[in-house]
Write a structure and sequence with these properties.
The chain is mostly helical and 476 residues long. The chain is built from 19 helices and 4 strands. The strands form 2 sheets. It has a two-stranded antiparallel sheet with strand order 1-2. Residues 6-15 have low confidence and may be disordered. The structure holds arginine.
């Protein structure tokens, strides 16, 4: 640690005045300076920080703390800071600890000491919670749009290929004949739940902490409802100033939403990875979302899908990480909370990327109906055979055994159910008649499942219609 002492001494000279510097006489260890700063990642909220400050300046004017001209100067000055960020000319200087200090420092350089009135009654505690909520609300609106595109793509492809029959699996063992579109809309159903989760958490994100001060509230009577309206906080204002600076549930809710949605995308991706393998060949990813092997010329790897599956793991870690950061923190603000932002940015960015990549994969994937048909086998109709007798009044528990006996008979002969004659079947049960041969039809099997949610064409198309109605009602 000798070097730490050396850097500490080196730091004594040329120390800039800090925004919170009043009672501090010693210089900060440069390593501590880096350790403490959040600007490298929170600077992406420059726009939200400026919008929050402009609304706050107006509220201060309405409360009589600033004159109209002072508020005007501040709002305009902030507009100039905004232009600098937009043009890429904003210069970060040492001592710019986070986006809040950086913007205020620049504002004061531009408009002089009146800039120092902006922070009256405000703390970075209510400021950072406001900025991040504003940022998140905007980012999640994008997420909702991307998710709607993904669901629409699933609907389109389901309708287009509604006649394609595919083996459905349980335990990854071929189970019953379903439709490709049924499988696809099954995933879309999970994505719809994700969208509902997202819709429900958005007003909780867009609830205003500003006007809570450091923890005890605002002593200058700013109108918090006014600020909420100015900033488009549809959830109103946080009801308790101590909770307002303490609460990171809006980030946890988001990380949970992302973790669950990514788990859904990951399972969808996993199915397609299996279906695209050389042993299945049910689907083929387009070149746009696959890569080759540096060694094996024949390989085409579903990298996009594998990356989605991998990133789902990281997003789960982000949720677990923030829960661990929060659980022991004493009430109100603690610097631990600064750890939330990288997790938040990472999860939201990852979700937004993955949803768009998934949409690209799904809209360009080629399906191979012949291979899907080839994946079906007569034993997958054993349940249908049992159901045949159920319709003739035999209790299902019995028909299950009877059908099992037919499967065994075929197996013993080294053939399939399709090769058993009606006479063969009659030896197992007298109620088998000529029409039993109609059972050996995969399409019929899917069509029989015509209840809401089932595999029949009518039912699958109805599922697509319901999803469309949902999106329409949500304005998506
Ligand atoms: N960069 C800080 C954060 O993200 C801002 C709040 C700082 N507040 C404070 N009391 N030091 O948490």
């Amino acid at each position: 640690m000798a070097s730490a002492q050396a850097v500490q001494e080196a730091a004594i000279t040329g120390e800039k005045k800090k925004l919170w510097g009043g009672r501090f006489t010693g210089a900060t260890d440069p390593l501590m300076e880096k350790f403490n700063e959040s600007l490298p990642f929170d600077k992406r909220m420059w726009r939200e920080d400026i919008r929050g400050s402009q609304a706050y300046a107006k509220a201060l004017a309405r409360a009589g703390v600033l004159t109209a001209e002072e508020a005007e100067q501040i709002v305009e000055g902030l507009g100039k800071v905004e232009l600098e960020w937009e043009a890429g000319t904003f210069k970060i200087v040492s001592g710019d600890e986070d986006i809040h200090t950086a913007n205020e420092r620049r504002l004061t350089e531009l408009i002089g000491s009146v800039g120092g009135k902006l922070h009256t009654g405000r703390s970075r505690n209510d400021q950072v919670a406001t900025d991040t909520r504003l940022w998140l609300y905007g980012a999640l609106q994008d997420t909702r749009g991307y998710l709607a595109d993904l669901i629409k793509t699933a609907i389109d492809r389901a309708e287009l290929d509604v006649d394609v029959i595919m083996p459905g699996f349980t335990h990854l063992q071929p189970a019953q004949a379903v439709r490709w579109s049924h499988w696809l809309l099954g995933h879309a159903a999970a994505w719809q739940r994700d969208d509902m989760r997202l819709r429900d958490l958005m007003p909780r994100v867009a609830t205003l902490p500003l006007g809570s001060g450091a923890l005890a509230g605002n002593p200058f009577g700013v109108d918090r409802q006014f600020i909420a309206r100015e900033l488009g906080f549809i959830g109103g204002v946080c009801p308790n100033s101590m909770d307002a600076v303490s609460d990171r549930d809006y980030v946890l809710d988001t990380l949970y939403f992302v973790a669950v949605h990514m788990a859904h995308l990951s399972r969808w991706a996993e199915d397609l990875i299996i279906y695209s393998s050389g042993l299945f060949k049910f689907v083929q990813c387009s070149d746009a979302y696959a890569t080759g092997s540096s060694l094996m010329p024949q390989k085409k790897n579903p990298d996009a899908l594998e990356l989605i599956r991998g990133k789902a793991g990281r997003c789960q870690g982000n949720l677990a990480g923030l829960l661990a950061v929060m659980k022991g923190a004493p009430t109100t603000y603690n610097k631990d909370f600064q750890e939330a932002w990288q997790l938040m940015f990472d999860s939201v960015d990852t979700a937004n990327d993955c949803i768009r990549i998934a949409t690209g994969v799904l809209s360009t994937i080629r399906i191979n109906p012949d291979r899907m048909l080839a994946g079906l086998s007569p034993d997958m109709l054993a349940t249908d055979l049992a159901e045949y007798l159920v319709r003739k009044g035999v209790p299902f528990r019995e028909t299950h055994h009877i059908s099992g006996a037919a499967v065994k008979m075929a197996e013993d002969r080294g053939t399939t159910l399709f090769d058993l004659t009606v006479a063969d079947l009659k030896t197992i049960h007298p109620l088998f008649e000529d029409d039993v041969l109609e059972v050996w039809d995969y399409n019929r099997s899917a069509e029989m499942r015509d209840t809401e949610g089932g595999a029949s064409k009518r039912s699958v198309l109805e599922q697509a219609q319901k999803l469309k109605r949902y999106l329409g009602a949500e304005g998506l």
